[in-house]
Design goal:
It is built from 5 helices and 5 strands. It is of the alpha+beta class and about 150 residues long. The structure holds adenosine-5'-triphosphate and magnesium ion. Adenosine-5'-triphosphate binds next to α2 and α5.
């Protein structure tokens, strides 16, 4: 069966660039949706982390974006699609400690250059693509069923 057919639930959330007063609310919502589905704690926690990092990056760097949550029988998928400056060098941006965060972002406690690295670490499958002056697209998949041996 193709992946599009067995979607159990899909939710989408708009994110406004630069609006730090709302930053983190989408990841809180996603966490509560996944908890209600009785998914394993580890899946809920990892989903909330990857969502939070993607959300903060949209608020910090992009003009606007959409985060979507897709729940399938065996996986949780979080996609973050933004309109913004894009990332000129993805390999560099993925490195721990690399950040272009400005003073305002750093004063709020962000800008350690760990977000994308953590997203990759906590996802089972991670895809990133970006186009300069257009935007950035992230796709994170977290398996909900432990691998059978
Ligand atoms: N959605 C995005 N649009 C444009 N640039 C981005 C986006 N996400 C990340 N970047 C670029 O990649 C760099 C690394 O991002 P990453 O999330 O790893 O670290 P950070 O946001 O700088 O710090 P931290 O996430 O630890 O608070 C950012 O500093 C920024 O230059
Ligand atoms: Mg970040």
């Amino acid at each position: 069966m193709c992946a599009a057919e067995n979607i159990l639930e899909k939710h989408s959330f708009d994110i406004e660039g630069g609006n730090f007063s709302n930053a983190g609310t989408v990841s809180t919502k996603i966490k509560s949706i996944l908890k209600q589905k009785n998914l394993p704690d580890d899946v809920v926690r990892r989903s909330a982390i990857v969502c939070y990092e993607a959300e903060i990056n949209i608020v910090s760097y992009a003009k606007k974006g959409v985060i979507s949550l897709t729940i399938r029988p065996n996986s949780v998928q979080i996609e973050a699609d933004d309109e913004g400056p894009g990332i000129p060098n993805i390999e560099l941006a993925m490195q721990q400690g690399y950040s272009t965060a400005n003073q305002q972002i750093r004063e709020m406690g962000f800008g350690a250059g760990m977000g994308l690295h953590n997203i990759k670490t906590y996802s089972d499958i991670f895809d990133i693509s970006s186009e300069v002056d257009k935007g950035t697209f992230l796709k994170m998949t977290i398996h909900t069923q432990p691998a059978k041996d």
